[in-house]
Design brief:
There is one protein chain. This protein has about 280 residues and is of the alpha/beta class. It has two domains: about 120 residues, Rossmann fold (3-Layer(aba) Sandwich), CATH 3.40.50.2300; about 140 residues, 2-Layer Sandwich (Alpha-Beta Plaits). Helix content is about 45%, strand content about 20%. The strands form two sheets. A five-stranded parallel beta sheet has the order 2-1-3-4-5, with helices on both faces.
Length: about 280
């Protein structure tokens, strides 16, 4: 049973989170000060911390810094829960290694999903993406290594651009919906015209990679590009679809490809470096 530490000095909010997550099947501990949180994590390591930023002794940023600097607590998932809404505040939290950042007033269902995803990332390691379920990390590396050992392959890299700006405007739940929808559209395209040996993985939350055969690549690339470009506007609320959103803030897709014939590649890291170069 996962153990959650709630660090919150608002008694009403703390009691609500305690009761809610216990009903969801979690063990919950509650502390009201930052110093208590650090000590608690070191002595009775939780599986996840829900951390308010405004605390009566040290703020949540300092708590996160202390946790990340300690070997025993450095990898505990942290979700910031705060009234601070400025982009600079959110970035400061993410720079400290927080897994998520949710502003008050918050949707308890959204918080539950964020907790679930963060815990899933921890328990599954780096095998599958917690949002899309696609292989990532070790599983992706294994498939790319197999490519290097085989004779004929092609990689299609699909990059979803400006997801951070979309998330900032519409929230994490909407952002997750975009990621899942994109992965499903790629999957459906492969199922329609690809082969059983094709593989779809995820390099990052916004980067997907398709392993296929060179002969299938042109048709798959065209099908995926068309489907994604036709669908991206529908992720926006109806009232915003016709607004002039600056291009640098609007969801878009970029596709690049890499063929085995462009090698040889000296190893997995060289192959991944070439993918990164083409993405940029």
């Amino acid at each position: 049973m996962p153990n959650i530490l709630v660090v919150e000095d608002d008694v009403d909010v703390a009691d609500m989170l305690n009761a809610y997550f216990r009903v969801q099947g979690y063990e919950v501990q509650v502390v009201n000060e930052g110093g208590q949180a650090v000590e608690n994590c070191r002595n009775n390591r939780p599986d996840l911390v829900i951390l308010d930023i405004r605390l009566p002794d040290v703020d949540g940023y300092e708590v996160a810094r202390r946790l990340r600097c300690n070997r025993r607590t450095g990898d505990i998932p942290i979700i910031f829960l705060t009234e601070k809404r400025l982009r600079a505040d959110r970035l400061q939290g993410l720079e400290l290694g927080a897994d998520d950042y949710i502003t008050k007033p918050f949707d308890i269902q959204e918080l539950r999903l964020r907790v679930r995803n963060a815990l899933r990332r921890t328990t599954q390691g780096t095998l599958t993406n917690p949002v899309t379920g696609l292989p990532e990390g070790t599983l992706l590396d294994e498939r790319l290594s197999e490519c290097l050992e085989s004779g004929d392959w092609a990689l299609l890299q699909i990059s979803l651009e400006n997801l951070d700006a979309f998330r900032e405007a519409y929230g994490f739940v909407a952002s997750d919906d975009v990621q899942r929808a994109v992965s499903l559209m790629i999957f459906n395209a492969v199922r329609g015209i690809g082969s059983l040996s094709d593989f779809i993985g995820q390099i990052s939350p916004t980067e997907y990679v398709l392993v296929t055969l060179p002969g299938s690549l042109p048709q798959l690339a065209e099908r995926i590009k068309i489907r994604l470009e036709q669908s991206l506007d529908y992720f926006y609320p109806l009232k915003d679809r016709d607004q002039e959103i600056p291009a640098e803030h609007r969801l878009s897709v970029r596709i690049s490809q890499l063929l085995s014939s462009e090698g040889p590649f000296t190893g997995l890291e060289a192959l991944k470096a070439e993918l990164l170069r083409r993405r940029n």
